[in-house]
Amino acid sequence: MKNNITITTERLLLKPLNRSYLSDNYLSWINDQEVVKYLETQVGSSKTDLENFLLEIEKNEIFAWAIEIKNLNEHIGNIKIDPIDFKNGYGEYGILMGEKTQWGKGYAKEASIGVINFCFEKLKLRKINLGALIENKRAIKLYRNLGFKKEGHFKKHKVFEDGFCDEIRMSVFNKNFKVKSFSS
């Protein structure tokens, strides 16, 4: 199934992520240690690496969106559901808020609500999963506010800073997702 869907929220446009988003600004996000601190993305990517990543998204028809502020036409991050297991009815959530000047304004929550609603209403998924490093307190707070519940706890599971960090696995089921629209 091809992702050619634009999702509109109150303040955002979520547009299919593709090579048109290749930019020095986007490259600066994935090479900023503060931005990727809790992600699997490693600092040190080249513009060619980023272009190849975007090409893979296009080629594999991944449900990934660029997060843009409507009135500014500004790309501030990305959000995805990948992989998706249609047989078992679930997908894996991920988000990158790259533009640090836009942090703390509720855009991650708003984008998440838009994508989760799309997954439950249009893709007919029954469950969304995610993993979060236990140190990523802000993200975990967001996920809980969205209705995600902890399903698992993996001890010293991922490399983080100078050692290993626990990861929690969380999910939200379609029938339990109550947040249908954004409010700050």
Explain the layout of strands and helices.
Elements lengths: L6 E2 L3 E5 L7 H7 L2 H4 L10 H13 L3 E7 L4 E12 L4 E8 L9 H15 L5 E7 L3 H9 L3 E12 L2 E11 L11
Parallel strand pairs: 5-6
Antiparallel strand pairs: 1-2, 2-3, 3-4, 4-5, 6-8, 7-8
Describe this structure in words.
- With 184 residues, the protein is of the alpha+beta class.
- The chain has a domain at 7-129: Gcn5-related N-acetyltransferase (GNAT) (Aminopeptidase, 3-Layer(aba) Sandwich).
- The protein is 26% helix and 35% strand.
- It contains 5 helices and 8 strands.
- The chain has helices at residues 24-30, 33-36, 47-59, 107-121, 137-145, and strands at 7-8, 12-16, 63-69, 74-85, 90-97, 127-133, 149-160, 163-173.
- Strands 1-2-3-4-5-6-8-7 form an 8-stranded mixed sheet, covered by helices on one side.
- A hairpin with a 2-residue loop joins β7 (149-160) and β8 (163-173).
